[in-house]
Amino acid sequence: MTIEALTIGRVGVDLYPEQSGVPLAGVSTFAKSLGGTATNVAVAAARLGRRTAVLTKVGPDGFGDYVRQALDGFGVSPSYVGTSPELQTPVVFCELNPPADPPLLFYRSPIAPDLTLTDDDVPWDVVESVPLLWVTGTGVSAEPARATQRKILEARGRREHTVLDLDYRPMFWPSVEEARAEIGAMLDHVTVAVGNRTEVEVAVGTADPDTAADRMLDRGLRLAVIKKGAEGVLVATPDGRWTVPPQRVEVVCGLGAGDGFGGALIHGLLAGWDPVRIAEYANAAGALVASRLACADAMPTAEEIEELL
């Protein structure tokens, strides 16, 4: 399979409570789902008909086997999923309390396999030639993945489309200052960046969407996408900027909405759509995921997105 999009970064197994609105101590049963930002984004794009793969690593355990099997089942190539022999596949517990912004409990110690990516794990020919490359802020939160992702971006040479998912998780960083330095540095090597207000503040030092967009475009980006929650989505290019209104849905679980948005963003970029069309489509995809339980399993089809629009 010749892939259209390669995502790089986090993978894990998500365990979702089957009882909503109670703390973890009160949960009786959990449902297992494929998880991790880069992985979910690849699944979301595949659900929309794109040929995708994820570059990541798991442990030599049953959950690692599950990751590969689940990717294959979703139509995502597991060809670039490596194994860290001494580590375990990460597990993440979600507490649906509150459902809109559920707390997460990450089991990624002493380090997650996906943060042990080295030069030897990278399909360099794919990195240089794939139509769309997707990197993440979490991917530079620790070595050796930090140095590896830097080399990947250098090899890519800011080819269109090179996308940075700002993906800031404070528990993965020793300080905001270090996160700003490492995530911000990647802006000089990508053509598109996407994130929410918190994430753009970490990357460029301001949570104001318009100012943040200005700062990203000044770094040479061709498209900045800033998610403003209930205020919609700002999309900015060197030629103009627009705000797309939010989609109103009843939130079941807020997790994975950004990943559904990302998969739709990939689809729109590869299709050559204009920025407003991309934002409307991605916003609808994210809203649909928020109205469902789980992440990868909740990614919508093109028909479902068009129906909501």
Automatic annotation (TrEMBL):
Broad enzyme group: transferase
InterPro entries in the cross-refs: Myo_inos_IolC, Myo_inos_IolC-like_sf, PfkB_Carbo_kinase, PfkB_dom, Ribokinase-like
GO MF annotations in UniProt: 5-dehydro-2-deoxygluconokinase activity
Keyword annotations: ATP-binding, Kinase, Nucleotide-binding, Transferase
This enzyme's EC code(s): 2.7.1.92
Keyword RNA-binding: no
Domain Carbohydrate kinase PfkB: 6-301
Family: Belongs to the carbohydrate kinase PfkB family.
Protein name as it appears in the record: 5-dehydro-2-deoxygluconokinase
